[in-house]
Amino acid sequence: MEHHVQLKKNISKNYLFTLISNVDLTRGIWMIYLASKGMSLTQLGLLETVFHLTSFTMEVPTGAVADLFGRKTSRVLGRVFSLISVVLLLLADSFLWFAISFVFTALSYNLESGAGDALVYDSLKEIDEEAQFMRVAGNKEVFYQIASTVSFLVGGYLATKSYTVAFILTIIIGTASLLQSMTFREPSIGKRERAKEEGNIFFAQLRESAAVVRSNPRIGALIVFCQVILTFCTCIFFYLQNYMKAGGYSEATIGLVYAVSALGAAVIAPQVHRIERRIKEKGILIVMPFITIGCIWGVAMSRYHYAFFILLMLTESIIYVAMSDYINKMIPSESRATILSFASMVFSFFMITLFPLIGLLGDRYSLAFAFMCLGVLGSTFVILNTFILLRKTR
Q: How far apart are CA 2 and CA 7, in angstroms?
């Protein structure tokens, strides 16, 4: 009984963890910060490529770590690596050391990406409340967006005064999140028994998780769909900082725009389960992507690009929360963290190919032109996705 009580507490503890760990005062200013250190848009794109190359190669292995050694262990290690990355980014003064910092940042994301959702879903599953996951994921998104709002407002303000102060405060908050990550109770389901297994348990875990995806192609299809949409949104999210800075906006104003987008997402996230009941899965998979791509065109071509960006972040939140529920329902607990990390690996693959291209086009032509190219690519993807889905429906 005590174990079940602690598992139920994992949910509220995860809300607190989400809040503390995502108060990152450098999140909305790091591209501007690195530009002030002499990095061009192309170099910024390359640094993000370093991040995603690391993530691409390490996502599934770190997911296997969570399945084999525990979600809590993986989460704690992720917090340690996150602290190292921020310290390096503050102290570094060359492309090489910035790149090393991004390697640690990627590893911190890798260790958290599959483990975090797996810890929550399996905690709910063990107490027979997994049907509540979409609601819980929506509530978690509220705390994430509140943390983002604080990060953008305070980080943007501090950037006008001192980048160093923003980094030092982020390190202090990161230490608090590390301590809080140690308070979770590990679910008893999902973690593999290793003592009696023969051979290389690590590769066995990868093989079995791959077999799950092969046996249900829908898992892979939903993962690819979700991660492509998130890639488009992430490219806009990061490069818009420099786009607005070049347009004469101050760091404080940029932070305000990003904070408003986060607040909007915080309001809509807990309503996703109600939205999904109204528009159904077809609405999530067809209607929302069209709105998302329309927002990208608005960012690229409208003088009110900031308004389209805010709406873009709302659609991203809806798609992310709903898709997390769809995918988790199809994954067995023993492979959950590994497969969720596979999803992040897919995201990294698309970011490796797309993110530096946007930076290169921005340097050679303009970011507005790069955003339009992203709009063309996104429109093509959404039209093809819609055609395939409607054909399967018929």
A: 9
The model scores a pTM over 0.90? no
322 CB-near residues (< 8 Å, 6+ apart): 134, 272, 275, 276, 281, 284
Q: Which helix (H) or strand (E) holds 52?
A: helix 41-69
Distances 151 to 60, 84, 168, 236, 313 between C-alpha atoms, Å: 29, 19, 13, 18, 16
Q: What is the pLDDT of residues 131-172, one digit of tens each?
A: 888 788 888 888 988 998 888 888 888 888 888 899 999 999
| Domain boundaries, given as residue ranges, for the chain | 2-187+205-393
Largest CA distance in the chain: 63
Q: Are 239 and 370 in contact (CB under 8 A)?
A: yes
Burial 3-19 (b: 16+ CB within 10 A, else e): eeebbbebbebbbebbb
Amino acid at 378: G
For residue 292, give the nearest of 317, 267, 273 by alpha carbon.
Answer: 317
Backbone phi, psi, residue 5, to 5° = -65, -45
Q: At what angle do helices 305-329 and 288-301 cross, to 10 degrees?
A: 150
Q: How many angstroms separate the CA atoms of 155 and 170, rounded?
A: 9
In this structure, are residues 48 and 102 in contact, taking their beta carbons and an 8 Å threshold? yes
The topology (CATH level 3) of 2-187+205-393 is Growth Hormone; Chain: A; (1.20.1250)
Per the CB < 8 A criterion, the answer to whether 147 and 23 are in contact is yes
Cα within 13 Å of Cα(276), Cβ side: 21
Give burial (CB, 10 Å; 0-12/13-18/19+) of 346. Answer: buried
**Do the beta carbons of residue 119 and residue 10 sit within 8 Å?**
yes
Q: What is the pLDDT of residues 33-49, one digit of tens each?
A: 888 888 888 888 888 88
Do residues 370 and 253 lie in contact, with contact meaning Cβ atoms separated by under 8 Å? no
